[in-house]
Amino acid sequence: MATPLLRLSVGQVLRSASAIVSRPLSGSHILRIDGCSHLKEAIRHGEGTESCDFNVGDHTWRLLCYPNGSNSKCRRHFAVYLKLVSDTEDEPLGKPVLLRDVGMHKFTHGDSWGFHDFICRKQLEKSEYLKDDRFAILCNVSIIT
What we know:
By secondary structure, the protein is mainly beta. It contains two helices and eleven strands, in the order βββαβββββββαβ. The two termini are 28 Å apart. This is MATH domain-containing protein.
């Protein structure tokens, strides 16, 4: 059993304190997609393209984008996934919060996590996000160590 206060023989009180502080390591990456209409025609459903690598918290990440959906059920949607590229022993625990809360996810090397129905293509085409056939995706990554 720990003793919080120790008394010296002369009556002085020694105090001890410690703290455990966990702060998330955070970073962001902006993926700009130019020529959205061409990309939609050039890439079939189930096929995707990748962002360049970016680093957050000693880990290397990449965004995976599927302009015609990542599977046959979501052909009319733009899909986005966050992928852990680096091979590391301590697997980061993440919480994707793109359009909806899906809880925590423990990433392993090569693992990806995201949304097969990130946004409906027709909705994207009518939205304020698509301007001059381009739009951007901001990906914020926070890692709890």
